[in-house]
Amino acid sequence: MVQPEEELTYAITYKNTTGKDVNATITDKIPAHTKFVSADNSGAESGGVVTWNVPVAKNQSITVKFTVKVDKDVNGAPIDNIAKVNDGTNSYDTNETHNPTPTEPKKEVFKFGTTTNIDGKVVQPDQKLTYQITYKNTTGEERDVTITDKLPAHTSFVSADNGGNFANGKITWTAKVADGQTLKVTFTVKVDKNVNGEILKNTATVNDGVNDFNTNVVKNPTPKVPENPDTGDFNNIMLLMLMLLGSSGALVSGMTIKRRREE
Length: 263
Known about the structure:
The strands form six sheets. The chain has a five-stranded antiparallel beta sheet with strand order 4-5-2-8-9, with no helix packed on it. A five-stranded antiparallel beta sheet has the order 15-16-13-19-20, with no helix packed on it. It has two domains: 6-99, Sandwich (Immunoglobulin-like), CATH 2.60.40; 106-221, Sandwich (Immunoglobulin-like). The longest helix is centred in the last third of the chain and has 32 residues, at 231-262. It is built from one helix and 21 strands. The chain is mainly beta and 263 residues long.
């Protein structure tokens, strides 16, 4: 297995058994999910193919090499490579090399009882949420996998599937996962009643004996409860109301006096 951004060097060896000197042409297509770095023996890269034109005496061997860098976002895609050799008499395909790459695990969050990812959506106090971690084994062999997930702040633990063990604020799962197989585990929490505007965040760690991953982070905002006015503000409001009532009383008295004079 190879890692994202790792540099790989490929070597192609040709032995001339034609009984005469030859000019060999070797071509090698850059593997998918990689980028060309360099080539020796005057190898030239063009259009994603590296080409060497080399004289090889009878009964002699030559080895040519080139280097590539694995893409950062390869995410489980295999790195396969094969070369072609033509010595003027024979045309060969070399053996194919195959290197698996790790697949990054994925974290999702659902409303309890549903399967629609609500990452980034507002959730409510006392609501139940289910978190899911998905791991796919693309390492090329069976793995003993450990998944650990810390309970999100402002929530309380409800349950976990697949034998998940909850202790000290963390849920832990251990499982054997065959090459090419996928493991999904979930746990459910209940949002605190007094969460009051906090953002719920969650991520998990996954270790398969070769790779140590952190999943993506899921986030869910919560509503903020409006604050009551301060006591001082309430007193000011009451004072204003009394002043208005006093002004209204004076106006009414004035109107009454005027009516008496008209009588």
